[in-house]
Structure formats: structure tokens, C-alpha cells
Design a protein that fits this description.
The complex is a heterodimer. Chain A is α+β, with helices and mostly antiparallel strands. Chain A has one domain: Alpha-Beta Plaits. Helix content of chain A is 23%, strand content 18%. Chain A contains four helices and five strands; from the N terminus they run αβαββαββα. Chain A has a three-stranded antiparallel sheet. In chain A, strands 1-4 form a two-stranded antiparallel sheet. The N and C termini of chain A lie far apart (58 Å). By secondary structure, chain B is an all-alpha fold. Chain B has one domain. Chain B is 67% helix and 2% strand. Chain B has a two-stranded antiparallel sheet with strand order 1-2. In chain B, a hairpin with a 6-residue loop joins β1 and β2. In chain B, α3 runs parallel beside α10 and α5 packs antiparallel against α8. The chains are: A alpha+beta, B mainly alpha. At the A-B interface, α1 of A face α1, α11 and α13 of B.
Chain lengths: 137, 369
């Protein structure tokens, strides 16, 4: 009865002098897990434009229906997204769009800190998705 | 003129002691949170100011601006008086504790005794006030018109009364040795180095005092009155704002006073551990010893789980109370036969007795219903 109590005291005493394992969040950050699914980004092709061919597969597969695409064709007959809109406030980060994409245009990123005061900035279009590539090396 | 100077001296001393006590209470809360954090391998509060040093003040301002709520079911006068009783009793105890030797003010012949009041019934005063502090908890829980509060204060009554018996008995050994209730006298007799401290003559009493003191403080192994998991918050469940803060401060001030009393009675008060170290002022030694005891209080809080209610009662009445009685008997015997040099062997014998007693009470029949 007494010896285990003393053992417990010794244990906590040793713990007292050990280094805390807390990660001080805003100063130090945990790297995201390798398969982490953050907000999406677009890959660029050789001309610096989006690789997206506006096939609409991501729009169909998206369970929360947060992707809307309007398709257009350029003069060479290539299809491209006239508007590509991803409503990040509705996205559930399932990653189906990345899986469905036949041309490897859309990817799930690593960014997990994103807060806005309004809904407007949460609507991502093609340019913003291309911008997101910068925070996902 | 002399009387006027005396009055000024007393007022200055009271204000300084009160200020130091409140400041140490504020930083004790921070220290407790920090140390508990490090015991649990994390940092404590470290956001507010450098190393979280402004945390007590932010807590204080927060509780100032909270709504001061009195429940409709509550007995209003008692509900308001209860926190005041707790905190005033806890602060009042500190008035008689000698925290240093005397010193002469430079270029005058005025001698300042480093204590607020030198009462010749110091220990009685302390136990009287400590019991008064219990009324705060009892009235606070009982008058709040809440079942949890009432249960908490009922438990507090039972626990504090049982443990006060052993606490009082453990202190009587020291009184027998010192032949005085005056705290300054008790400290003076312990002068002349580490080996003159009462802890060597009364080791069992010291342990009993620590255990019962923790029980009186309602701290973790014995925190029945505010068992979070069972009673939500216990006796202070309906309190908010400054009333809650007063309960909180009273609790921590009581913790400081229990530690200070243990230092005074058993650890030589402000006397240095070696006579050669006498050049360091007594206040420093007093604070260092007090810090060690406060660290112990926090340390054991971080270690031990809460006892069940019947276990607390069993420990109090079947282990600590007989031990205190045996300790008292042995001290009285040794002292009445005037063999003071036998005090140490008697203490050793007491350890054996304690071992036998604990064996029969706990090991052979461990805590069972």
C-alpha cells in the first residue's frame, strides 16, 4: 500500500523533469499526414494553363455536389472549363474528384488551416485552384 | 508617541503580510497549474505574458466581470457570507505565524518583530480559525439550494471533523515538547541547526499532520467535497464571479497557511538548517521551506487518485486517529519521565508500531466494505 504510493510519487517526479511533448501550435506545426486530404489544387500543363479538359466526371462523382463546370471549346477543338467552380464550404474532402479525374488535373492538397468570415472567398474558381498549387509543393 | 509608532508598525506589517499572502496565492494557482502540467508531460498555461506569468491577473479580471449570480432557491445571507468566512479565516491564520526573526530599523533603536501578532495561545487561535473556515464550506454548500452543493458540504462536514481530530492530536506532541502554545517559542526552541527540528522528535506526527492537512484542505486524495466526477463541483457549484474566486483564493490561502504551520511546528520555522548559514535572513529560509511543502502538495495532487468516501472515513478513524493517539501517548511517557534524549529512539519505536498498525489495518484487511 505504501510502497506503490511512493513508486507513484517517483514516477510523477520523473515526469515533472521530462520534456513536455506538447506541440505549441501556432509557432510549431505538425506536418500533414502523407495521405492527408486538404483543399484541392489544379496542376498546370506546359503552357501554364489548367490540365482540366472539363469532362465533368468530378462534377458527377462529387457526393456533396459542390463542383459546377461550364464547358467550352477553344479554336483547336480542345475542351476547357469556361467556369470551374468549387464551393469549398460544401466540400467534404472525400477525394473522389482526384480519383475520378482522367487527366490528373485536380489533386487534394495539404492545407488544413483555412478560415474565412464570408462565403464569397470560399468559392474557388480555376485561377484560385491554380493559385493553391503554391501552398502544395 | 511610542503607541503611534507601534500602530504604524502593526498596520504596515499587516498590509505587507496580506499583500504577500494574496500575491503568493495568485502565483500559487499558476504554480499549481504549471507543475501539474509538467507532471502530465505538457506545458501549463504559457500564453498570457512571458511564461504565462500574467495568467493569475487575467483570471482575476475574468472573474471580476462574470455575472454575480444568487440562485432563487438560495438562502441569501448565508450564501453571501460563506465565501467571506472561508477567505477571512484562511487569511486570519497567517497573522500569528512567525515568518522571520527581528531586525532593527537602521539609524533608530526600533526593533521590528517579523510577525503580525505574537499571541500566547497561537496554536489554539489557529485551530479555532481553521474550524471557522470549514463553516464557509458547509454554509456555502448548504445554503445554495442545490443537491450537489448540499451533498458536497455534507461530505465536507464528515471529512473535516474526522480529520481535525487526528490533526489536533498530532500537533499536541509538539506542544508537549515545547511546553508552549506560542508559535515564536516553538520556533525559538528549534534553533541551532537541522537536528534540533521537531521533525526528528515527532516524525509520525509530521506525517500525520501532512496527511490530515491535505484532508483539511480538501485536496485531491481527499477532495470529497468537490469531487468533480461525482458532484459536478461540490459545495461551490452555485457560486460564480468574485464569490467563486473568494472560495478559490480562500482554499489556496489555506494551503499556504497549512504549509506555513507545518514549517513552523516541524521544520524549524525561519531557523536556518545550519547555524553557519545564519547570515541569510530568516524570511528566505521560511519561504524556501514553505515552497518545498507547497511543491509536495502539488506533487501529491498530480499523483494520487481520489479515495472513496468509506475509504476516507476508514483511513481517518482506523489508521490516523490510533496512530495519533499512540504518538501522543509515547511523547507524553517519554517526556514525563524526563528522558528527552530518548525522544529519537521513541520515534523509531513509533515507526515500528505504525508499521504493525498499518499492517493489521490495511494489508491484512485491505480497504473492503
Amino acid at each position: 500500500m505504501i510502497i506503490p504510493m511512493l513508486k507513484g510519487l517517483m514516477l510523477t517526479f520523473n515526469r515533472f523533469f521530462s520534456r513536455p511533448i506538447t506541440i505549441q501550435y501556432p509557432e510549431e506545426k505538425m506536418p500533414a499526414a502523407p495521405r492527408w486530404r486538404g483543399i484541392q489544387y489544379f496542376e498546370r500543363d506546359e503552357q501554364g494553363k489548367t490540365k482540366c479538359v472539363a469532362c465533368g466526371l468530378c462534377m458527377i462523382v462529387c457526393p456533396s455536389q459542390c463542383i459546377t463546370i461550364e464547358t467550352a471549346e477553344d479554336e483547336e477543338g480542345r475542351r476547357y472549363p469556361l467556369t470551374y467552380e468549387l464551393d469549398a464550404s460544401r466540400c467534404i474532402y472525400c477525394g473522389y474528384c482526384e480519383e475520378a479525374c482522367p487527366v490528373s488535373a485536380i489533386f487534394m492538397g495539404k492545407m488544413y488551416e483555412w478560415v474565412e468570415n464570408e462565403r464569397k472567398p470560399l468559392l474557388l474558381d480555376t485561377d484560385k485552384l491554380l493559385e493553391n498549387k503554391k501552398v502544395n509543393p | 508617541m511610542h503607541l503611534l509608532f507601534l500602530l504604524i508598525e502593526i498596520i504596515v506589517k499587516s498590509v505587507v503580510v496580506f499583500g504577500c499572502l494574496m500575491l503568493s496565492v495568485a502565483y500559487l494557482t499558476l504554480m499549481e497549474r504549471k507543475f501539474l502540467g509538467h507532471i502530465q508531460v505538457r506545458f501549463g498555461p504559457n500564453r498570457c505574458g512571458p511564461f504565462g506569468l500574467l495568467q493569475p491577473f487575467s483570471d482575476m479580471f475574468k472573474s471580476f466581470f462574470k455575472e454575480d449570480l444568487i440562485p432563487g432557491q438560495a438562502d441569501k445571507p448565508l450564501f453571501v457570507i460563506a465565501p467571506m468566512l472561508t477567505i477571512s479565516a484562511a487569511i486570519g491564520i497567517f497573522a500569528v505565524i512567525p515568518f522571520g526573526d527581528q531586525f532593527t530599523i537602521p539609524r533608530t533603536s526600533w526593533i521590528v518583530q517579523l510577525r503580525v501578532a505574537d499571541v500566547d495561545i497561537g496554536l489554539l487561535y489557529i485551530f479555532g480559525l481553521a474550524s471557522l473556515g470549514e463553516y464557509g464550506i458547509i454554509l456555502g454548500g448548504g445554503s445554495s439550494g442545490n443537491k450537489y452543493g448540499l451533498t458536497g458540504s455534507l461530505r465536507a462536514v464528515a471529512q473535516m471533523i474526522s480529520y481535525e481530530v487526528a490533526l489536533g492530536l498530532s500537533v499536541i506532541g509538539v506542544i508537549i515538547i515545547a511546553q508552549s502554545l506560542r508559535l515564536t517559542e516553538i520556533v525559538r526552541l528549534q534553533g541551532g541547526g537541522l537536528w534540533h527540528w521537531n521533525i526528528w522528535a515527532q516524525p509520525v506526527a509530521f506525517l500525520l499532520y501532512l496527511i490530515c492537512g491535505v484532508a483539511e484542505l480538501n485536496r485531491t486524495p481527499f477532495d470529497m467535497p468537490e469531487a468533480e466526477s461525482e458532484l459536478a463541483c461540490g459545495y461551490n457549484i452555485e457560486y460564480s464571479s468574485m464569490k467563486f474566486a473568494m472560495f478559490f483564493m480562500g482554499e489556496y490561502a489555506h494551503m499556504v497557511t497549512v504549509g506555513a504551520l507545518a514549517v513552523t511546528l516541524f521544520l524549524g520555522g525561519w531557523q536556518p538548517p545550519l547555524p553557519a548559514l545564519g547570515f541569510i535572513p530568516g524570511v528566505v529560509w521560511f519561504c524556501m521551506k514553505l515552497f518545498v511543502l507547497l511543491f509536495f502538495f502539488i506533487w501529491e495532487r498530480g499523483t494520487f487518485p481520489r479515495l472513496r468516501y468509506d475509504q476516507i472515513m476508514k483511513l481517518g478513524w482506523k489508521v490516523l486517529f490510533p496512530l495519533a493517539l499512540i504518538n501522543l501517548l509515547m511523547t507524553g511517557l517519554v517526556y514525563s519521565f524526563e528522558v528527552v534524549s530518548w525522544v529519537v529512539p521513541a520515534a523509531v519505536g513509533l515507526f515500528f508500531l505504525a508499521g504493525i498498525l498499518i499492517y493489521f489495518q490495511l494489508v491484512k484487511k485491505p480497504f473492503k466494505r
